[in-house]
Amino acid sequence: MTYHPFQIYGRERKSRWLITVDHASNHVPVEINNGDLGLAPSDMERHIAYDIGALGTSLRLGELLDAPVIASNFSRLVIDPNRGEDDPTLVMHLYDGTIIPANRYIDEAEIERRKEVYYRPYHKAYGELVAEREDPIIIAMHSFSPKLNGRASRPWEIGILHAPQEDRFSLPFIERLQEESDLTVGDNEPYAGHLLGDSIDSHCFSKDTPHLNTLIELRHDEIDTDPKQNAWAERLAPMLNDVLERTGL
Protein backbone atom coordinates (compact mmCIF):
# COMPACT_ATOMS: atom_id res chain seq x y z
CA MET A 1 0.00 0.00 0.00
CA THR A 2 1.15 3.56 -0.74
CA TYR A 3 1.69 5.59 2.41
CA HIS A 4 -0.11 8.94 2.72
CA PRO A 5 0.75 11.37 5.52
CA PHE A 6 -2.90 12.41 5.91
CA GLN A 7 -6.43 11.20 5.33
CA ILE A 8 -9.47 13.24 4.30
CA TYR A 9 -12.86 11.85 5.19
CA GLY A 10 -16.00 13.22 3.56
CA ARG A 11 -14.27 15.67 1.25
CA GLU A 12 -17.50 16.00 -0.72
CA ARG A 13 -19.31 17.48 2.29
CA LYS A 14 -20.01 21.15 1.68
CA SER A 15 -20.99 22.78 4.96
CA ARG A 16 -18.97 25.67 6.42
CA TRP A 17 -17.50 23.38 9.06
CA LEU A 18 -14.05 21.84 8.69
CA ILE A 19 -12.72 19.46 11.34
CA THR A 20 -8.99 18.96 11.75
CA VAL A 21 -7.16 16.32 13.77
CA ASP A 22 -3.48 17.22 13.97
CA HIS A 23 -2.61 14.34 16.30
CA ALA A 24 -4.89 11.63 14.96
CA SER A 25 -2.43 8.74 14.72
CA ASN A 26 0.42 7.02 16.53
CA HIS A 27 1.75 5.59 13.26
CA VAL A 28 5.50 5.67 12.59
CA PRO A 29 6.34 5.42 8.88
CA VAL A 30 8.64 2.54 8.00
CA GLU A 31 11.32 4.94 6.70
CA ILE A 32 11.96 5.99 10.29
CA ASN A 33 14.01 3.29 11.98
CA ASN A 34 11.85 0.58 10.35
CA GLY A 35 8.72 2.12 11.82
CA ASP A 36 10.02 2.13 15.38
CA LEU A 37 10.93 5.19 17.47
CA GLY A 38 12.58 2.93 20.04
CA LEU A 39 9.71 3.20 22.52
CA ALA A 40 7.83 0.35 24.14
CA PRO A 41 4.45 -0.43 22.53
CA SER A 42 2.77 0.74 25.73
CA ASP A 43 4.39 4.17 25.33
CA MET A 44 3.13 4.41 21.75
CA GLU A 45 -0.40 3.97 23.10
CA ARG A 46 0.00 6.91 25.47
CA HIS A 47 -0.89 10.55 24.93
CA ILE A 48 2.73 11.32 24.10
CA ALA A 49 2.30 9.60 20.72
CA TYR A 50 -1.14 10.88 19.66
CA ASP A 51 -4.44 12.35 20.85
CA ILE A 52 -6.38 9.38 22.13
CA GLY A 53 -9.98 9.33 20.92
CA ALA A 54 -9.74 12.51 18.87
CA LEU A 55 -10.08 10.84 15.47
CA GLY A 56 -13.12 8.73 16.29
CA THR A 57 -14.89 11.69 17.88
CA SER A 58 -14.09 13.82 14.85
CA LEU A 59 -15.33 11.27 12.33
CA ARG A 60 -18.74 11.10 13.99
CA LEU A 61 -18.82 14.88 14.42
CA GLY A 62 -18.02 15.29 10.74
CA GLU A 63 -21.01 13.14 9.81
CA LEU A 64 -23.32 15.16 12.05
CA LEU A 65 -22.07 18.57 10.83
CA ASP A 66 -21.76 17.53 7.17
CA ALA A 67 -18.09 18.48 7.47
CA PRO A 68 -14.94 17.02 5.99
CA VAL A 69 -12.34 15.77 8.43
CA ILE A 70 -8.61 15.98 7.77
CA ALA A 71 -6.40 13.81 9.96
CA SER A 72 -2.66 13.34 10.15
CA ASN A 73 -1.30 9.84 9.56
CA PHE A 74 1.90 10.07 11.59
CA SER A 75 2.68 10.30 15.27
CA ARG A 76 3.31 13.68 16.81
CA LEU A 77 6.64 12.15 17.90
CA VAL A 78 7.66 11.83 14.24
CA ILE A 79 7.03 15.54 13.72
CA ASP A 80 4.33 17.70 15.27
CA PRO A 81 1.97 19.27 12.71
CA ASN A 82 0.65 21.62 15.39
CA ARG A 83 3.95 23.45 15.63
CA GLY A 84 5.61 26.03 13.41
CA GLU A 85 8.47 24.87 11.22
CA ASP A 86 10.98 26.78 13.36
CA ASP A 87 9.53 25.68 16.71
CA PRO A 88 12.15 23.92 18.89
CA THR A 89 9.52 21.35 19.93
CA LEU A 90 8.70 20.41 16.33
CA VAL A 91 10.52 17.09 16.85
CA MET A 92 10.51 16.10 20.49
CA HIS A 93 13.51 14.48 22.15
CA LEU A 94 11.75 14.16 25.52
CA TYR A 95 8.02 14.11 26.24
CA ASP A 96 6.38 13.87 29.65
CA GLY A 97 9.53 12.34 31.11
CA THR A 98 10.07 9.82 28.29
CA ILE A 99 13.13 10.00 26.03
CA ILE A 100 12.36 9.36 22.35
CA PRO A 101 15.34 7.22 21.26
CA ALA A 102 14.96 7.66 17.49
CA ASN A 103 14.87 11.45 17.95
CA ARG A 104 17.67 11.76 20.47
CA TYR A 105 20.42 12.41 17.92
CA ILE A 106 18.31 13.62 14.99
CA ASP A 107 20.09 15.99 12.61
CA GLU A 108 18.82 18.91 10.55
CA ALA A 109 18.75 16.86 7.34
CA GLU A 110 16.36 14.32 8.87
CA ILE A 111 14.17 17.07 10.33
CA GLU A 112 13.96 18.68 6.89
CA ARG A 113 13.10 15.31 5.32
CA ARG A 114 10.26 14.82 7.82
CA LYS A 115 8.96 18.31 7.08
CA GLU A 116 8.94 17.62 3.36
CA VAL A 117 7.45 14.12 3.48
CA TYR A 118 4.95 14.34 6.36
CA TYR A 119 4.44 17.85 7.73
CA ARG A 120 4.14 19.95 4.57
CA PRO A 121 1.81 17.62 2.63
CA TYR A 122 -0.57 17.60 5.60
CA HIS A 123 -0.61 21.38 5.78
CA LYS A 124 -0.96 21.76 2.03
CA ALA A 125 -4.08 19.58 2.08
CA TYR A 126 -5.37 21.43 5.15
CA GLY A 127 -4.96 24.77 3.38
CA GLU A 128 -6.75 23.49 0.28
CA LEU A 129 -9.76 22.42 2.34
CA VAL A 130 -9.89 25.83 4.00
CA ALA A 131 -9.70 27.56 0.60
CA GLU A 132 -12.61 25.50 -0.73
CA ARG A 133 -14.96 27.18 1.79
CA GLU A 134 -16.14 30.75 1.45
CA ASP A 135 -16.74 31.27 5.19
CA PRO A 136 -15.10 28.31 6.92
CA ILE A 137 -15.44 27.47 10.58
CA ILE A 138 -12.49 25.37 11.65
CA ILE A 139 -12.91 22.98 14.55
CA ALA A 140 -9.50 21.71 15.66
CA MET A 141 -10.04 18.54 17.68
CA HIS A 142 -7.54 17.41 20.31
CA SER A 143 -7.48 15.39 23.51
CA PHE A 144 -5.44 15.71 26.68
CA SER A 145 -4.20 13.43 29.41
CA PRO A 146 -6.09 13.35 32.71
CA LYS A 147 -2.74 13.77 34.48
CA LEU A 148 0.87 14.38 33.46
CA ASN A 149 3.69 12.73 35.39
CA GLY A 150 4.24 14.51 38.67
CA ARG A 151 1.40 16.96 38.06
CA ALA A 152 -2.04 17.44 39.57
CA SER A 153 -5.08 15.77 38.06
CA ARG A 154 -6.92 17.87 35.50
CA PRO A 155 -10.55 18.52 36.43
CA TRP A 156 -11.87 19.68 33.05
CA GLU A 157 -13.79 17.28 30.85
CA ILE A 158 -13.43 19.74 28.01
CA GLY A 159 -11.29 22.77 27.36
CA ILE A 160 -11.61 25.42 24.66
CA LEU A 161 -8.38 27.02 23.51
CA HIS A 162 -8.54 30.36 21.77
CA ALA A 163 -6.41 33.31 20.82
CA PRO A 164 -7.27 36.87 21.90
CA GLN A 165 -7.31 38.14 18.31
CA GLU A 166 -10.11 35.75 17.34
CA ASP A 167 -12.74 35.06 20.00
CA ARG A 168 -15.89 35.53 17.95
CA PHE A 169 -16.83 31.87 18.08
CA SER A 170 -14.79 30.44 20.96
CA LEU A 171 -16.11 32.68 23.74
CA PRO A 172 -19.79 32.10 22.90
CA PHE A 173 -19.03 28.39 22.65
CA ILE A 174 -17.48 28.42 26.14
CA GLU A 175 -20.60 30.19 27.43
CA ARG A 176 -22.79 27.53 25.80
CA LEU A 177 -20.77 24.71 27.34
CA GLN A 178 -21.01 26.35 30.76
CA GLU A 179 -24.79 26.01 30.54
CA GLU A 180 -24.28 22.25 30.91
CA SER A 181 -24.50 21.53 34.64
CA ASP A 182 -22.37 18.38 34.51
CA LEU A 183 -19.32 19.89 32.80
CA THR A 184 -16.20 21.56 34.15
CA VAL A 185 -15.14 23.69 31.20
CA GLY A 186 -11.59 24.93 30.73
CA ASP A 187 -11.10 28.41 29.27
CA ASN A 188 -7.61 28.14 27.74
CA GLU A 189 -7.10 25.08 29.94
CA PRO A 190 -5.23 22.79 30.20
CA TYR A 191 -2.98 24.83 27.87
CA ALA A 192 -2.62 28.39 26.66
CA GLY A 193 -4.71 29.03 23.60
CA HIS A 194 -2.29 30.40 21.05
CA LEU A 195 1.12 29.33 19.82
CA LEU A 196 2.82 31.19 16.99
CA GLY A 197 3.07 28.97 13.95
CA ASP A 198 0.60 26.34 15.16
CA SER A 199 -2.12 25.05 12.86
CA ILE A 200 -4.75 27.62 13.78
CA ASP A 201 -2.23 30.43 13.60
CA SER A 202 -1.07 29.30 10.16
CA HIS A 203 -4.44 28.62 8.58
CA CYS A 204 -6.73 31.13 10.30
CA PHE A 205 -4.74 34.20 11.31
CA SER A 206 -2.67 34.59 8.16
CA LYS A 207 -5.72 36.10 6.43
CA ASP A 208 -6.83 39.74 6.42
CA THR A 209 -10.03 38.58 8.10
CA PRO A 210 -9.35 35.65 10.44
CA HIS A 211 -11.42 32.54 9.81
CA LEU A 212 -13.83 31.49 12.53
CA ASN A 213 -12.27 28.76 14.59
CA THR A 214 -12.12 27.04 17.92
CA LEU A 215 -9.85 24.37 19.36
CA ILE A 216 -11.57 21.67 21.40
CA GLU A 217 -9.60 19.65 23.93
CA LEU A 218 -11.41 16.64 25.40
CA ARG A 219 -9.91 14.77 28.34
CA HIS A 220 -9.05 11.46 26.79
CA ASP A 221 -10.67 9.24 29.42
CA GLU A 222 -13.92 10.84 28.20
CA ILE A 223 -13.37 9.53 24.65
CA ASP A 224 -11.30 6.36 24.96
CA THR A 225 -13.99 4.04 23.55
CA ASP A 226 -16.18 4.15 20.46
CA PRO A 227 -19.42 4.69 22.44
CA LYS A 228 -17.87 7.59 24.37
CA GLN A 229 -16.57 9.16 21.15
CA ASN A 230 -19.98 8.92 19.52
CA ALA A 231 -21.70 10.31 22.62
CA TRP A 232 -19.42 13.35 22.77
CA ALA A 233 -19.79 14.03 19.05
CA GLU A 234 -23.56 13.80 19.35
CA ARG A 235 -23.45 16.20 22.29
CA LEU A 236 -21.13 18.71 20.63
CA ALA A 237 -22.79 18.92 17.20
CA PRO A 238 -26.05 20.57 18.33
CA MET A 239 -24.17 22.92 20.64
CA LEU A 240 -21.89 24.05 17.83
CA ASN A 241 -24.86 24.68 15.58
CA ASP A 242 -26.64 26.46 18.43
CA VAL A 243 -23.70 28.85 18.91
CA LEU A 244 -23.61 29.56 15.20
CA GLU A 245 -27.31 30.40 15.23
CA ARG A 246 -27.12 32.50 18.40
CA THR A 247 -24.21 34.59 17.18
CA GLY A 248 -25.35 34.96 13.58
CA LEU A 249 -21.75 34.59 12.44
Can you characterise this structure?
With 249 residues, the protein is α/β, with parallel strands linked by helices. Helices cover 31% and strands 16% of the residues. The protein contains 6 helices and 9 strands; from the N terminus they run ββααβββαββαβαβα. The protein has helices spanning 41-44, 54-65, 108-131, 170-178, 199-204, 226-247; strands spanning 6-9, 17-21, 69-72, 94-95, 98-99, 137-144, 158-161, 185-187, 212-219. The strands form 2 sheets. A 7-stranded mixed β-sheet has the order 1-3-2-6-9-7-8, with helices on both faces. Strand 4 and strand 5 form a beta hairpin. The longest helix is centred in the middle third of the chain and has 24 residues, at 108-131. The chain is globular, with a radius of gyration of 17 Å.
The biggest sheet amounts to: 7 strands, mixed
Mean pLDDT: 94
Name the helix and strand elements from N-terminus to C-terminus, one letter apiece: EEHHEEEHEEHEHEH
**What is the oligomer described by this structure?**
single chain
Indicate the percent of residues in helices.
25-40%
Total helices: the number is 6
- The CA-CA distance between the termini, in Å, is 43 Å
